[in-house]
Amino acid sequence: MSEEKPKRMKGFAGIVWKLVEPLNSMEKFKEEFAEVKVKILVNPKDQKRAALIKIDKGTIDVEDVKNDKETLKNLKYDGLFEGPFNLLAKVFEEGLSTGTLLKKWITRKIKLRGLKKLAIFGKLMAL
Known about the structure:
This protein is an alpha+beta fold and about 130 residues long. It has one domain (about 10-125): 2-Layer Sandwich (Nonspecific Lipid-transfer Protein, Chain A). It has helices at about 10-20, 25-30, 70-75, 85-95, 100-105, 115-125, and strands at about 35-45, 50-55, 60-65, 80-85, 110-115. It has a five-stranded mixed beta sheet with strand order 3-2-1-4-5. The protein starts with 10 loop residues before the first helix and ends with a helix.
């Protein structure tokens, strides 16, 4: 029998994976997201790659996605969080308040789509 190798990712998706992967072993996450099935695209506009976060009934996964118009146009997702890399990295590492995110959305520094689904993303970041 061969052992399953741990998932390795590079770039932005790798950063996101390192931050969210421990959630797969948290009972609280499994309970709160047991009925949730959602895909959220986190797209740093100034990078070549994006991350597609998939939550499927208590498990989380991240997929590395090419950040070009053709790929993003054909990609199926429920929510979009798009902005410059440094802002997205800050959100994942420190978290940002709703007020701060709203201010950045109004001033068009970030783009948000699927706000109901992105609320799940906010809940995820609170864990």
